[in-house]
Amino acid sequence: MNSGSSLTRRSCLSLAATGVSAVIAKPAPTTIQIESVTFTLEDIKYRSPYKFGGVAVDNTTLLNVKARIRTKAGKVVEGFGSMPLSNVWAFPSRQMPFDITQNAMRELGKRLVAVTNTYREYGHPIDINTALEPEYLKAAAQVSTELKLLAPIPKLCTLVTASPIDAAIHDAFGKALGLNCYLTYGPDILNKDLSHYLGKDFKGEFLNQYVNSKPRAEVNLYHSVGGVDTLTDADITKRLNDGLPETLPEWIRYNGLHHIKIKLQGDDIKWDIDRTVSINRIAEETSPSVKWLYCVDFNERCPNVAYLLEYLRKVKELSPRGFERIQYIEQPTARDLKADSRNVMHEAAKLRPVVIDESLTDLETLLLARELGYTGVALKACKGQSQAMLMAAAAQKYKMFLCVQDLSCPGASLVHSASIASHVPGVSGIEANSRQYLPAANEAWRPKFPGIFTIKDGTMKTAALTGPGLGVVA
What we know:
alpha/beta, 8-stranded parallel β-barrel, 19% strand
């Protein structure tokens, strides 16, 4: 498999549109070769169900990956990556039950590891991922056929399943060089400019121009309020009594919160409005001196933009302060932007940034979203470190609002996500809800990264994310 030809396949749409040729530079002396990739699957239970996108989730599977790489000098180093296989988000289906789509992702994970083990070209991790992505998509199509799935595995699902492999390779690469991975994106190490990945607008620019070499000291934390989460004592039928908060006021006091992510239904406007107004009332009653900010997330369930505009109008009418505190809106309508192109966001974006999340799978979808009026981008570790970095560059170039979102990431995946949030300039904050729903999976990591796993003033302390690779010590 030739990395140059694979790059051309992946970039054909954007490069053809821009007239940029995929010229491959000579391999840098710092390039690496994959020696072996191994994986384990780890099933974990939620502390309490988390409802988003109309579905309440109570379990997930972690895909844990170890990648051994070899430098040109013969040094062998191992890296680690981990990510939840969140099938409800990555592979939603009304035709297939939870177990079927979850099993498809588990099987796909095995297949993608096998595909990666066949790749022997030297390269930077971003070039390795660029070359492998078309092969990953072919593997997803094969798994869909072999399992006789009623709908094919979508690209987003493939990106999520591949993300811990990509993370492990970035991690190993940085460790081989003795550098944090955010120090490996300059022309001295990544010797192709961004036009090779993002088109002619980026000619002569390099990735390190769009990421900070050192992490910010802290990042605002968005506390998630799921669709079935209890707001007050009156909502509780039976307490868990596990030592953690169980109502919104308890969480506000426990973590010193000042940012909240509100999960909405998108198919019940009265519920959505009442939920938003109630959360704002509880927040300001609990901590009246706090300068509250909210994200409202419909998980693509609004039938149209008219629903969103009516929701915003009514919230402003009933709770002017609550409306002012909405910092941005996340993925209000369906993720397939081509099929849903009449739902333009220009009017809504005049009121607040409208962010794509599920829709964002590549540069093409980012550019299409801009045409349709979206003004922001949600970066996610679960779409791969390589893609997160390239989309971060594109979003900054096009002056888009930036945030980092979660996949109920515990342990290493949360450290990875926090690292993205702390190194990308302009990120408004990070959602990190595993402390709410998967706390047991975080316990072993708390002593290693106390500032990430113990929240006291509504911020995640990220200054320590300077270690080699992704900074993750498995």
